[in-house]
Amino acid sequence: MRILIFAPHNDDEVLGAGGTLAKYAKQGHDVIVCEVTSGIDTENIQAEARAAHRVIGIKDTIFLNLPVVELKEYPAKELNRAIQQVVNDIKPDITFIPNKGDLHGDHSEVAKSAMVALRPHINSQLKAIYAYETLSETEWGIPTQDNLFIPNVWNDITDFISVKLEAMRCYKSQLMEFPHPRSLIAIEALSQIRGSTICVKHAECFMLIRGCMPNE
Question: What CATH number corresponds to the domain at position 186?
Fold first, then answer.
């Protein structure tokens, strides 16, 4: 299968689904990351991203290099076109997108554009779309009814939590000290909390947006 994840910012893919992506890669699936924006220190952050992706086993990384913190002002048709091109090129079987209610506006804009690109009438191969949670974004958003992240799918990543943490260590410019949520301690703690929901040591959880029942 082809697994595609859209990351509004470098490190979102590891925070939200690093263990799941490593698990897919270990199973032999093609995992592709699309990093949508780039910040001021583009060369350094993209080097960190490539290092993290080597740890996870990512097959390919796509950098769109769109302006960070400015996607709300960026022309919607241009954002839609860029993301649509990625979907057309990859033809993913499973896609992960950020939660549209996250605090950072870039997350919402990427989520909306991804849903436009992933419309079912032009993606017959697509089996599922999942929204992921991002520490320091999802839990800090305004908790209105239409913004809430309500997980309904859990993935056991007990065998891959060490890979997720190693990948996050590659993002030296993004890591913070605990009690900041974007710290190794908080990342592991969240995986334990999510794991306890399904009685495993570590898990990541997602919100299924659209999915198809498997064929008999």
Answer: 3.40.50.10320
